[in-house]
Hints:
globular, about 100 residues, single chain, 4 helices, alpha+beta
Amino acid sequence: MTYLLQVDFKMDGPFGDEMAEAFTDLAKSINEEEGFKSKVWTESPETNEAGGIYIFETKETAEKYLDMHTKRLAGFGVTAVNAKIFGINSKLTEITKGSIK
């Protein structure tokens, strides 16, 4: 089964193009994480929140990444991280055109 990791946290910015420029190297490094399949980056300048929706091959690789990412965020001063891991129902996701590959 494939797993989804949902993460969000308070962040004062940057957002938009500035966020893309600031985090390009981080984005590239995420591609190298064990079991990583994809990420959708999320942001809300209106509420000062950011995060992402990640897809991992296994629950264990999602948990391992979350542990590492939570520690990395703490290094940036982010201590309140909301995170959940869900199994993905691939049959229903395929019907609704969700991409988990």
